[in-house]
Amino acid sequence: MRTVDVSVKPETLREAAAEGLIRLKPETVKLIKENRVPKGNVLEACKLAGIMAAKKTAELLPFCHPLPFDHAEVTAELGESYLKVRALVRGVARTGYEMEALTAVSAALLTVYDMCKGFDDEMRIEGVRLTHKRGGKSDWFADLKGVRASVHAEDEKLEKLVKGFLAELGATFSENADLFVSVGENLPMGRELRGFESVVALYDFARDPTAVAKEVRVGRTDEALLLVLPPDEGKITQFFKTFGGLLRHLL
Questions:
Q1: In the chain, how many domains are there?
Q2: Which of 114, 143, 178, 232 is an active site residue?
Q3: CA dist., res. 63 & res. 61, Å (int)
Q4: pLDDT digits over 96-114, tens only?
Q5: Is 114 labeled as catalytic in the residue annotation?
């Protein structure tokens, strides 16, 4: 048994939302609305329980990564025969907050059950589900379909490796290219995209400080995007697996 290794993923802004409800007798709804439940204010207690549970998610679920988050919000809505809970969790991380949002909703609903079980034996929790998530690779990944690429490398093995990744992304190959890739040899950069280069360099340094000399350079002319990769199989593989889906946004 093991958790998923997310160490290769970049940290990005992520968000997840979930909801669920608990069916209640109309009499129970009335007690909650009038704040006459003996154990206290059900609406406020369930919201607090949800936020606390979101913080403890990794302790409850053995394969869930312990994630810090930057925002958690739980809301509660009373209907004629139910109480609905919604949770939103947001932060910058390598993996998503789906489990934190679902755990928040579940704990909030269980708190309602616990506070009302003494006088409502017909309560039923239902509809706990993820309603929204965003962030991570699924949001920003774009293929290279329709993009013409040209690859040059002295090492045939590395040239084949780069072409394999580009083909996997959907690119075709032509000397009249939209994307020129050079392995090991510098190209006249034109306008260098230093922001993107810095992101790649910081990512690389966090994983291998000794590899800072194996830099990736990116620039563009009026006609094409230029990419210079170090003659290192591991570095090339890491670049395409992590940042290959961003190349389309640079064209």
A1: 2
A2: 114
A3: 6
A4: 999 999 999 999 999 999 9
A5: yes
